[in-house]
Design brief:
Length: 262
């Protein structure tokens, strides 16, 4: 590895593994490393690159994927994942297995769930070894989430946040809960005119009234703090005007024609 790449790699490891993680320095080191990796033919591996350099390049991209989630930059995570697939698939026989691969694949599976891309979720799952799906905690977690979503067991999805196998998983589970809350809210609006604040908070998995009130404001709900009620904003029902006079006239004309036939 070139000297400048080695220097930036050392900076990356130091910044990323510090307690707490220094995201600013991590992202700076990543930006510098990616430029150097492009020049060295490592970002998109070229023929003749040494296996040890490929392994380091894979590790850099994996750190980039983690750092993207910690920075709340989902599009960046998607890009890192796409680049990592080259190493995970095309170089699976050249490189030793990465200890981070199951975690990153699991994160991508949850990412697909947040987008409701269920078909892509199952396609990605089919590319994995059945034993990994059955035994690896990083993969089992999104598999369970998908099953609970299909069942409508939203409370299990909520509780799964605390059972996440890695801290980064909580970010996507929180995003998933946002989608679930909007679905539940739409059902509440259709089924009720109002609900007690406490009941609404329970149904929407909010721990505090402040969180509920913020969500209610976003949905356009009316809040009665004195009465402790939420009034749901109803969509205006379409009114269909029935042309009574024309229908009656047409019916009478039809009746006269029947009489003439008889």
């Amino acid at each position: 590895m070139a000297a400048h790449l080695k220097t930036n790699y050392d900076k990356l490891i130091k910044a990323f593994t510090s307690k707490p993680c220094n995201l600013k320095e991590t992202n700076v080191a990543l930006a510098n490393l990616k430029l150097g990796m492009i020049e060295a033919g490592l970002l998109i591996p070229q023929p003749g690159v040494k296996a040890v350099e490929l392994r380091i390049a894979r590790e850099v991209l994996e750190i980039g994927a983690y750092a993207s989630i910690r920075s709340r930059d989902v599009p960046s995570f998607d890009r890192y994942y796409s680049q990592l697939l080259t190493f995970y698939v095309d170089y699976s026989e050249t490189l030793p297995p990465s200890p981070h691969e199951p975690a990153i694949r699991g994160l991508y599976l949850i990412r697909l769930l947040t987008q409701n891309r269920i078909a892509d979720f199952h396609t990605s799952l089919e590319s994995l070894d059945p034993e990994v799906i059955a035994t690896n905690s990083y993969i089992k977690h999104p598999v369970n989430l998908e099953r609970w979503l299909m069942e409508g067991s939203y409370s299990k999805v909520w509780n799964a946040r605390e059972e996440a196998p890695a801290e980064e998983y909580k970010f996507f589970v929180d995003s998933l809960m946002g989608t679930i809350r909007n679905e539940i809210a739409s059902c509440q609006e259709a089924a009720y005119d109002s609900l007690p604040l406490k009941d609404a908070a329970t149904l929407l998995f909010f721990k505090t009234q402040t969180e509920l009130l913020k969500f209610a404001e976003h949905r356009g709900w009316q809040i009665d703090l004195t009465g402790g009620l939420i009034y749901f904003k109803k969509k205006n029902e379409e009114k269909v005007e029935i042309p009574k006079q024309r229908i009656i006239a047409a019916s009478l004309a039809y009746a006269r024609e029947l009489e003439q036939i008889v």
